[in-house]
Amino acid sequence: MFNAVFEKLFKLQANGTNIKTEFIAGLTTFAAMSYVLVVNPSILSAGGMPVAGLITVTALAACLGTLLMAFMTNYPIAMAPGMGLNAFFAFTICLTRDIHWEAALGIVFWNGILFLLLSVTGVRTKIADAIPAALKIGVQCGIGLFIAFIGLKNAGIVVDHPATFLTIGDLSEPATMLAVAGILLTIVLFIKKVTGAILISVLVLTLIGAFIPTADGYLTQHTDSFVGMPDSISSTFFAMDLMYPIDNIATTWDLIFALMFVNMFDTIGTLIGVSRRANLLDKEGRLPKIGPAMTADATASVVGAALGTSPVTSYVESAAGVSSGGRTGLTGVFVALCFMLALFFTPLMKVIPLMATTPALIMVGILMMDSFRQLDFDDLTALATATVALLVMPLTFSISEGIAMGFITYVGIMVGTGKYKQVTWITYAMAAVFILRYVLDLK
Questions:
Q1: How far is 213 from 199, CA to CA, in rounded Å?
Q2: How far is C-alpha 218 from the chain's CA centre?
Q3: DSSP code at position 313
Q4: Which residue among 152, 196, 310, 349 has the highest number of C-beta atoms inside a 10 angstrom radius?
C-alpha cells in the first residue's frame, strides 16, 4: 500500500530510487542539519525572544518548510530557519536597531509576503541576475565571518577590550578550553567526511560539560530525563506585530530588503548546488522547478514568522542526503518526520550549554567563506566590492550595513572607472537608496 502511494506521489522508479534509499537519505540529511534545533534558539533568544518554546518553533518551521518543498517540487531539499538570517534577526534588527522581537517578526512576515509575490511573478530571478556576482560572494562570506565571530564571542574566545576593542579571552577557563577543543573536533570530523559532524561535536561537548563543575553546578546542567513533551509555542505563535514595519517603513525598508536579499541568494545557491549533485538540472544547467521551489521557500518564511522564528530557507546540508541516494521529496518527508520526533528530546536539548554551540557557528561560518574562492582576484573592482561587504558586517555587527556598503562601493568604483554602462538599473537604484538612508540618517 505504502509503495503505491509513495510511487504515485514521488515517482520513485522514474527517479531511480526506492523507499529504503530515501529513508536513509532523510536520516542523513537530518543528522547533518539537526544542530539547528539547538543553535537557532540560542541565537534568537540573544535577540530577546522568550527561550520557552523556541526549540518547538524551530522544529515545526523545519518540518512544515521541508514538507512544502517536498510536495511542491518533489526535490530532496530540506528547510529550516536559516543560519545568518537568524543572526540578522537577533543582532541587527533586535539588538543594533533596538526593535522588539514581535516587531522583528512582523518584518520577517512582510519580507516573506514580498518574497512570495516576487517568486510567483518571476521577478525574483530577474533581480538575482541583476546583482553583481562579487556582491553576492561578499555578502555570503561576510555573513559567514559574522556568524563565526558570534561563535567566538559566545565561547569567550574573543572578548572586548577598552584599548584594542577586542582581544583574546581567558583560554584557561574550562568552558572556553572545551569550545576550542570542540572547534578542532568539528573541523577534523568534516575533513574525515563524518556525517552529522556538527551534531556529534555538540553532543560530545555537552557530555564532557556534565562532568566539569562550576560555581552554579556543572557546565552542562543535569536533568532527570532526556525525553519529555515538547514546549508550548503560545508565547510566540502569531505574536508578530504586522503594523510596525508599515508604520515605520522609512526605517524598516532596508531591513526587509536585506532579509530578502540574503534569503534570495542563499536559496538560489543551495537549490542549484544540491540539485546539481542530484542530477536534477536540465541540459542548460537550469533547475526545471525553480519557480515552485522559490515559492515554497517564501511560503515557509511566512509560516515561520507566524510560528515565531526568523526566515526559513533551503539547507545546503541537503547535499548529504543526496550523496546517500536521495532523489525525491520523500527524502524531505523523512527529514520532516525526524524533526517531529526530535521534539520529544526537548529536555536533552535544553541542557546543551552555550559553549557547545560554538563549533556549529564556527563551522557554518567556515563553510560560508568557501565561496570566496569563486572571486576573480585579478578584478580589483570585484575584489574591493566583496572585501568591503565582508569586512563591514562583522566590524559593525550588522549584515544590512555590509550589504549597503557593498552596493555603494561597487557603483562608486564602476562610475569612477567609466564603466557605468555595465551597471544594472537595479544596482544603481539600491545604491542610491542606501546613500539616501545614510544622508537622512534613516536607521
A1: 23
A2: 31
A3: E
A4: 310
Q: Is there a contact between 202 and 356 (Cβ–Cβ < 8 Å)?
A: yes
What are the grid coordinates assigned to 416, written together?
569612477
> How many domains, the chain?
1
Q: Measured between alpha carbons, how far is 183 from 17 in angstroms, rounded to an integer?
A: 36
**What single letter denotes the amino acid at residue 305?**
A
What does the block give as the cell for 126? 530577474
State in Å, rounded, how far the first CA of the chain is from the last one: 58
**Domain with 48 in it:** 2-440
The one-letter code for the residue type at 55 is I
**Which backbone phi and psi does 419 adopt, to 5 degrees?**
-105, 30
113 closest CA partner among 247, 263, 329:
263
Q: Which residues are CB-neighbours of 155 under 8 A, at least 6 positions away?
A: 169, 175, 176, 179, 180, 354, 355, 358
pTM: 0.85
Alpha-carbon gap, residue 371 to 138, rounded angstroms: 9
Task: List, for residues 173-225, the tens digit of each pLDDT value.
Answer: 888 999 999 999 999 998 998 878 888 888 899 899 889 888 778 887 877 77
Q: If you search the block for the grid coordinates 534569503, which residue do you land on?
A: 263
For 374-393, letters b (16+ CB in 10 Å) and e give: ebeeeeebbbbbbbbbbbbb
